[in-house]
Amino acid sequence: MFARVFFKKKEETEVKQGFPWVFDNEISHVKFDSASGVKQAPLEEAEVEDGSVVEVFANAGGFLGTGVINKKSKITVRMIGVEHADQIMADAQAYYNAKIQRAYDLRKINYSIKDSYRLIYGEADFIPGLIVERYVDIKKNVYLVVQFSTLSCEVFRKEILSALRKIIKPYGIYEKSDVPGREKEGLKLRTCWEGEVRDEKIVIRENGVLIEVDLANGQKTGYFLDQKDNRKYVGKLCEGKRVLDTFTHTGAFGLNAVAGGAKEVISVDISEDAVALVNKNISLNHAEEKMTAVCADVFDLLKEYEAKGEKFDVIILDPPAFTKTAKNIQKAYGGYKEINLRAMRLLNPDGILVTCSCSYFFDAEHFYGMVMKAAEDSKKRVQVLAKFGAGPDHPVLLGYPKSEYLKCAVCRVV
User: Among residues 48, 15, 13, which one has the least CA distance to residue 29?
Assistant: First the structure.
C-alpha cells in the first residue's frame, strides 16, 4: 500500500481547485505500512521516507491525487497527478513520456521547430519543480537546459531525462540545478552536461535578432524567454524613435527595437558582464551605428538624464524582481515607482513607456496602482495600450497563481 496523507478539516479546498502543494500545517495524519501492519500517525511520526510516492485524501476520505512527500520541506507534498499511485508507478517511464509529449505538443501550436522557448514550466505543466528550456542555435542544433529544483522531480530524474531524449532528441542537455531551493529540499546543487559535453555559449535567433546565450553562466536557465513575444510587439513601436532600454541584461529589447527601425537605442545595465554581452550582441547584429551599451546604475542614470534634459520617445523598464517575498512589497513599491516616475519625465509628449515587473508578490493590483501614482506625481496622464504577461510557453495553471507572475504594460504618456 502507498502511504496516504489526509488533510485537516476544510484544508483541502485549494488542492481540489488545482493548487499543487500540500503544506505541513495542513496535514492531519498519515496512514502507512509498518512491520506491525497499517498504522496512522501525525506527519512528524509517520514512517514514510522522503521521496516516496503518496496518495492525498480529503479529511473525509475523498481521493484527491498522488504526490511526492518531503518532510524536510514546509511544502510537504507536491502533487504529480490525479491518478492513483499504482497507476502512475506501474510504468513511471510511460507516465513521464506522456507528460512531456503533451507539453511539447502544446508549444508546437505557437512555435516552430526553429524557435527557442520554455518546454516545461514546472507545476503549470504538472511536473512540480522542473524547468526545461529548449534552445535552437543558428546551426539548428537543439539544446535543453534542465533544472530540477524539488525532490518531487528529482526522484523521477532518470525517467524525465529519458523522455526528453526520446521526444526532443536534443544535441545537448545542460543541467543547471543550482537554485537555493534545492538545499531546502535536502538536495545538493548540481551543474553539468548530461551526457556529451557541448559548447556552453550558443547563438539563437529571436524574432530575427541574434542573441548569444550562455547556457552554463547566464542568469537562471540561461536567458529570459518569457518576454520574447513582448519584445517583438515593442519593436514594432520603435520605428524612427529614440529608445532607452534599461535593465537590459542581454540587450534583447534594444535589439528588437533596432530591428523595428529605431533611430537610436541606449541599453543600460549595472553589470559589466552584461554590458560586455550586449556589446557582443550588438556586433552580431551589425547594430553599432544605432545601438550603444552603457554600464550604469539605472536609478542614478535616470536622475542624471533628467538633470541634463535628455528626452526619449520610448523607454523600456524591465527590472529584476524587486521583491521575492510578500513582506518586502512596500520597499519594492518605492523602487518601481521611482523608476516609472523618472521615466515618464524623460519621455517626449505622447512617448511610449514599456514597464514590467516579474515579481509574483508585486501583483497586478499593486503594479497598476503604482503606475497610476507615478503618473500622478510626475503630472502626466497615462493610457495603457496593451497588457501582456509571459508568452504561451508559460501557461497559467488555474488554482496556482504563482504561475502568473509577469506584468508588461505598454503605455502612452500624455
Answer: 48
Residue pLDDT, tens place only, 145-172: 999 999 999 999 999 999 999 999 999 9
Which three cell numbers, joined as nine digits, stand for 168?
Answer: 526532443
Helix (H/G/I), strand (E/B), else coil: 248: coil
295 catalytic residue (yes or no):
no
Beta carbons of 155 and 68 less than 8 angstroms apart: yes
Residues 6 or more apart whose Cβ sits within 8 Å of residue 363: none
Average pLDDT over residues 372-383: 96
End-to-end CA distance of the chain: 66
Is the model's pLDDT at 331 over the cut of 90? no
If one counts every other C-beta atom within 10 angstroms of the C-beta of residue 412, the result is: 16
142 closest CA partner among 164, 110, 120: 164
Range with the poorest average pLDDT among 4-18, 34-48, 185-199: 34-48
pLDDT at 36: 80
Q: CB pairs under 8 A, 24+ apart, for 217-222?
A: 219/249, 220/176, 221/131, 221/133, 221/145, 221/147, 221/176, 222/133, 222/135, 222/145, 222/176
The two counts, helices (H) then strands (E), for the chain are: 12, 21
Residue 327 has pLDDT above 90, yes or no: no
User: Which percentage of the chain shows pLDDT scores above 70?
Assistant: 100
pTM here is 0.94
CA–CA gap between residue 383 and residue 7 (Å, rounded):
47
pLDDT tens profile 246-300: 999 999 999 999 999 999 999 999 999 999 999 999 999 999 999 999 999 999 9
Cα–Cα dist 403/70, whole Å:
22
Strand order in the sheet with 190-193: 117-121, 130-136, 142-148, 172-177, 190-193
Rounded Cα gap, residues 31 and 42, in angstroms: 9
Report whether 288 contacts 282 (CB < 8 A).
yes
How distant, in Å, are the alpha carbons of 24, 108, 159, 186, 197 from that of 175? Answer: 29, 23, 15, 18, 11
With residue 340 as reference, give the H or E element that holds it: helix 329-346
The single residue of 153, 238, 356, 358 carrying the catalytic annotation is 358
Nearest to 314 by CA among 410, 206, 207, 210: 410
Quick one: which of 15, 45, 16 has its CA closest to 29? 45
